[in-house]
Design goal:
It contains three helices and eight strands. By secondary structure, it is an alpha+beta fold. The strands form three sheets. A three-stranded antiparallel sheet has the order 3-7-8, with no helix packed on it. The longest helix is centred in the N-terminal third of the chain and has 9 residues.
Length: 110
């Protein structure tokens, strides 16, 4: 119950300055992300394991929904969008516990 309250306070539904960019993300011709599904991840929480990207998921809303301890999540190769217009300067991951990684956008130049 406390996590739900924190989640509602943490995001007030107001689109951020990059909302239009998040809304433009598509994978295989389908919108793969929304502002609510996407998070900026520090590159220190991204690694290559077995030749594939993994992201360390640590913060709500992801883990509060599945009540899992922080863990590494595999990023499917076909979910990686190589876009030169990432305005965040960070690795962006769009993820739902039910569907896994919908898309991921590395920072420009990586």
């Amino acid at each position: 119950m406390i996590w739900v309250w924190v989640l509602l306070v943490a995001w007030d539904g107001t689109p951020g300055p990059n909302a239009e960019w998040y809304g433009s993300l598509q994978n295989h011709g389908q919108s793969c992300c929304s502002l609510g599904d996407c998070r900026e991840v520090d590159v220190a929480n991204v690694r290559i394991e077995g030749g594939h990207n993994q992201v360390f998921v640590t913060n709500p809303p992801w883990d509060s929904v599945v009540r899992a301890a922080p863990h590494w999540v595999d990023v499917p190769d076909d979910a990686i969008l190589h876009r030169p217009d990432n305005p965040t300067g960070k690795y962006v991951i769009c993820f739902t516990p039910a569907m896994g990684v919908l898309c991921a956008v590395p920072p420009e130049g990586t």
